[in-house]
Amino acid sequence: MKIIPLINEITNTFNEIFKNNLNPLNLESKIRNVGDTFTLKLYESFLNYFDESFKKSKQRKKEFNIKETRQRTLITSVGLITINFTAYINKNTKERYIPLRDILHLKAYQRLTNEAEYQLIKYAMDENMSQSAKHALRNTQVSRSTVSKKIKVLDGSINEVITKYTNQPDILYIEIDEIHANLQKGGNRICPCAIVHEGYEEEFVKRKKLKNIRYFASSKLTYEELWEVIFDYVNKKYDIDKFKIIFVSGDGASGIKNYTNCFPNAKFVLDPFHYIRKHLRYIFKNDTELRNIADDYIRNDLIDDFKLLVKSQIKKYPEQEKHMKEHMNYIINNSEGIKNQNNEDYKVHCSMEGHVNQAFARYITSSPYGFSEQGLENKLKLLVYHANKHELTIEDYYNLKYGNNNYVDINMKVKKICNIKYDQKLTSNYSLEYKINTSLPILDYPSENNRLKELTSIRQEIYVI
How many CB atoms lie within 10 A of CB 310? Predict the structure, then answer.
């Protein structure tokens, strides 16, 4: 691999760029552009070096005949590169073989490298797909549909290890709600979502944060199935039998209250936001005094008095009778959850609306585009990873795209082609760490070899005082 000519070329480019029109306003952008140009040239030279080396190797001459060499343009995480793709025919099996395709682990006609796809997916965890298409890759953009297609095929999963919590809390809070998503085929999909936490980290601060918060969401699971997933997490994280009390809060929908199979001793608390803003305010409008009286009737089990109060409101607004009775029945059916709002152990009011909007709704419900069913599930999966502060690694991406532990097989192929020896260490979270040990490439001339050793040697700076 000819490093020195590449360095000389970039040096000439650097001198040419900085020869004219240099001022403090464009200095940094010019330096950045030179660096990007060098990175792309280095990437191209590196891959072309492997292509040429394999072509001249004894292994190739023994096993393969050259079929053709073509130039391919690939979209990488740092921009567009154009490289030589040499195809071979196996002398025995007559199968077509392209070594660079194994090195980059590309499928036929794949233009985006896996690193570029990884950057698009990683960016889409924190922003919408349009922003990812525009900003995830350096020096180039892709379409939003490209990002959508890459998310759609993520059929794998990430093995997250949940360790037992040593500091068992007395109280656990589970808040559950739903978000709505538009589907490409038409219609609306209800996606249940939830958070589990231990209360506030600090009580005395104005801007409170929840302690050990964990997010859940799915477009394919029912409420009952999501409760099973939540139970599995809580059972692994805590000792369920040692909780003093578990509070479940939400808007009172039937699916939300189906927690009894998993948490039979939990207490339900109706979300005060829905209770006051959605139900009481609809019946009693802006009459604060009537709302307070109605609230007092509910909390003291004076249901008949509450019905009479609603009946008086219906006389004022007869055209709203049907809806007022629906809100009245909703409040009566959730009277126990309303009374539990004043439980002395219930110290954290339900904040699910804000968490749903911040973690999911602004990406899903607010999206003007329709989702495919699998694309919606995968997008929610990525949002859950991000909300749970899981830093997506390249190994995670390969597991999501190809299946668990497929990253090992990919690297074995790269080792075979590049002849790189490395050690593997299995960590507790089932991801792989690689320590790559390889010698420097042998260049064409002694002067180039000496120059390369000088560039890569450890330098010590001596300061004279």
Answer: 22
- 75, 113 in Cβ contact below 8 A? yes
Determine the longest span between alpha carbons in the chain, in angstroms: 100
pLDDT in tens, 36-58: 888 888 888 889 888 888 899 88
395-412 tens-digit pLDDT: 889 888 887 656 666 666
Tokens of 437: 């040990």
What is the value of pTM for the model shown? 0.77
Report the distance separating Cα 94 and Cα 65, nearest Å: 9
Distance between CA 135 and CA 139 in Å, rounded?
9
Alpha-carbon distance of 170 to 318, in angstroms, equals 49
Q: In whole angstroms, give the CA distance from residue 75 to residue 57.
A: 28
* pLDDT at residue 244 greater than cutoff 80: yes
Structural tokens at position 101: 């395709």
| Token digits of residue 129 | 């797909």
Rg for the chain (alpha carbons), in Å? 31
> CA torsion, points 442, 443, 448, 454, in degrees to nearest 10?
-30
**Helix/strand/coil for 174:** strand
DSSP assigned state of 210: B
